Amino acid sequence: MVLFPAFTAIDVFGPLNALNLLSIQHNMTLAMVSHDMKPISIDRTIIDGVGYGNLASSASPFFTEYVLPSHTFDNATDFDVIMVPGGGGTRNLTATQPAVDWLSTQLGDSGEEGWPSYVMTICTGTALLSRTLKIGGKNATTNKAAFNWVKTQQGAQDVNWIPRARWVVDGKLWTSSGVSAGTDMTLGWIEHVHGRNESERVRLLMEWNALDQEDDPFADYYDL
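Structure tokens predicted for Class I glutamine amidotransferase-like protein (224 residues):
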């Protein structure tokens, strides 16, 4: 899981809840990867102990949360699965550039054959992947509230954006819509890898009412 300042909580912890439950019966390892080992702020940019929403003032400047990374981009090993969350922090192009550079290295220069087995994005995390210039020609989706902003990012003009989809699968690339859609996508990935019975076991343990891949009420809400 790639981390950067002001990622959205459920983008990370929804999918990880599903994977935590999966890991009880399947041998897995987890790495929380960032540019250094400092605590990473959630949903806010923290400056001198004060939280800002998208770098603007907040009604609750001291409602702050952090998560600790386990690896840095410099010492992380090769992975089978890379997950990239979204959130307000994706709009800070400077703060997220180390993540974009690392993702670009992980995807390599030999096309999808050189990618990890799965590259997955949640919400506006697709914007970071677009900025690597490595997903041109691919089908992808993203947060419907931020759909038009993501399409303005570097490399986005070469992506085939799917406006009506809870999540999209194109080869090794899995991209999901906004926030909670990442958990739906993760449950879909569990079904893809381990079968329907296993994904249902995890879903029921989570008490999660999942949406299917083509269920996208938010596309209508945002007139996409």
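The helical segments are 9-23, 93-107, 125-130, 147-150, 181-194, 196-206, 217-221.
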